[in-house]
Each structure stands twice: as C-alpha cells, then as structure tokens.
Amino acid sequence: GEDVEQSLFLSVREGDSSVINCTYTDSSSTYLYWYKQEPGAGLQLLTYIFSNMDMKQDQRLTVLLNKKDKHLSLRIADTQTGDSAIYFCAERATVSGTYKYIFGTGTRLKVLA
Amino acid sequence: DAGVTQSPTHLIKTRGQQVTLRCSPKSGHDTVSWYQQALGQGPQFIFQYYEEEERQRGNFPDRFSGHQFPNYSSELNVNALLLGDSALYLCASSLFGQSTDTQYFGPGTRLTVL
Question: Is the peptide bond before B25 cis (omega within 30 degrees of 0)?
Fold first, then answer.
C-alpha cells in the first residue's frame, strides 16, 4: 500500500538543529520532497531529492535518503523562530505511467526562543 | 511571475449544496492537480488535469469533478456537499514531462460546510 509516515511534533531551541524524519513505502518513488506550511497558507516547496542520491544540501537544509530503509530526513541547521511551521514529506509514485504524489501527515515544528 | 492563485479564499456552504473552486497555474505550467487537506492531515490527492483531461484520480467519489480550460486554469466542483467535505482545498501546478515534475501550490480555498 501507499503510506508516508511522520512524527507529529518536534520542539527545538532557537539556534539548535532540527531533524524531521519520514518513512515511505513505494519503492518506485523517484523523487521525494519536503514542503513547509505556515498557518493559513498553502505549501511551500523547500527541497527535493532524486532517489539515486543519498544526500542533498541547500543552505541550512540537508536532506538524507536511505533508500534501503525507505527513510528520509530533513535537517535544519541553526533553527530560527521563523522556521516554526508544519513540514510535509511527499513521495512521487508512478501509477499507470503517470505520477501521483503522496503526502505524510506533517510534523509540527515549534522553535523556542 | 505570478504564482499559483486560487479563488475564493474562504467559502461557507450548507449540506447538499454545490461549490466551484478556481485555480490559475503558475506562469508556464500546463498541469493542475487538486488536493483536499482536512484539519490536522496532509493533503490528499483528488485528481490531476493535463490537456483539458483528467489524467489521474485519487480515492474520491464522483461528487468531485473538475475541468481544465484552454488557458490551463482549472475548476474543482463538489456536488451534494457533506459536513466531511469541510477542508482546505489546494491547487498545485507543474509542467508536464519535466523530469522533476515539481509542484507549486496555491494558498488554498478554505471550505466550511454547515
């Protein structure tokens, strides 16, 4: 079946690193994404990683992919109060020759000043 | 460069009514996908439109239908509204055939069914 799982909450202190984890089930997924959603807003694409990579770094963001365990993580360095939001992991699965996006339930990150 | 826009931002309807939500894709994009996000949940895929046709559909009943226009904009229609249809409806656009097929989301339409 298709399922993307994330822990529901994470609380960190300002300046610390945050690590948000995600597990997915579809081994055919070629791309995996991280989106950020602030209160009352749509989803903002943060970064993505191709399945043949195991790491991608983009400024304060580091994505790690363990394809064997179907585990994806997002590390935010020097976390700021503006990083407080819900973070969604999503996989792009191939269905009948086209793509389908499956999202996790989201991890609510709270950054304490 | 305009991003994805959606209208209206908020909508209140009663059970049994019908609703139409609208989406304009990001400039240069030709594919529109619709998602339903219930409170405290991740987005659930409803369907995707490309070349004015429904290309893929998630596990949603026929009460949910859509349309794509020649200018790539799209509508989502929901008939016979139920209380459980209350949610944030998100539209995402992308460029068909692009290797990353990255989706960009609009701000959403919050639908409340009373």
Answer: no
